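Can you give me the bound-state structure? Components:
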Amino acid sequence: MQAGKPILYSYFRSSCSWRVRIALALKNIDYEMITINLIKDGGQQLAIIEYLEETRPTPRLLPQDPKKRAHVRMISDLIASGIQPLQNLSVLNQVGQENQLTWAQQVIASGFNALEQVLQSTAGKCCVGDEVSMADLCLVPQVANADRYKVDLSPYPTISRINKSLLALEAFQVSHPSRQPDTPPELRA
Amino acid sequence: MQAGKPILYSYFRSSCSWRVRIALALKNIDYEMITINLIKDGGQQLAIIEYLEETRPTPRLLPQDPKKRAHVRMISDLIASGIQPLQNLSVLNQVGQENQLTWAQQVIASGFNALEQVLQSTAGKCCVGDEVSMADLCLVPQVANADRYKVDLSPYPTISRINKSLLALEAFQVSHPSRQPDTPPELRA
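Here's the bound-state model for the whole set.
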């Protein structure tokens, strides 16, 4: 990866792919994208983001202060391990079609209850203070999933506020699922 | 945490707590334990381990080489986001009692299939080469969960071999669920 142009295997709708696309956009890294229709879900893309952070440290996606870094990682893990894996495609298939929507709404709402509470003590304009971090890369794709499963966001004013202000940033827009090479025409922005 | 003695809120059986107990033992950090009966599951304890790594870097739980670090994080995330959250207590409750065992076996086996394949190209004595890393802290508690749910481990020779050699180490033994202050008498080693 340090040698040639990095290749991202991406699926337009995957929240895990989107996290990485945001990181690449923020760090202004030129990359090739290979779109794949089925993706191996899970939070493994955080390993890619940590790798990018170590090899291309500017702009930083982790604060310098160890306590703030821990906050960023706690929020990222809450989303990437505590919410996303419970509502990904393979789990929903296992749950059975008639239960999918209720299941997804339940795990997202339960995760967002915890997240809203954490954010109330860490957030500024972003999840931790006013600088965009790894936590924000996790937040926005997860809120998009919540939208998709029609989760009522009114109990989560902090989540909603941060999400809205992040979506105004270029890196979050170019990486958006509605603007990817494999986005079907009916879902294009 | 840098000031006083750190406090770990721990549950003897939780694989997430166990990961942190191994890290604390490896880094020889003296801490107080407060045992709690119900734990908020998820992979959030990786944030604690990253924090320990940054504030107490010796011995390292992440290799120095960025590629190897990425391997360690990929394996850790595969376990902490890809397997553990799908078989934790709250999910099993939601699945319903009669389906719990099948569900747990299925998600663990499917995760171990991926993990075994990754390990075949990264492992030495440990998950990545011969040095104990964050990935090993994730592996051993997850294999214990697999045992608990009676997953057949014969298709996973690499996982089994590494697990066995790690369990011989002091840090993995003192942190074991069978030796915690809140371990019930019938489960004590």
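A couple of observations. The longest strand of chain A covers residues 7-10. The radius of gyration of chain A is 16 Å.
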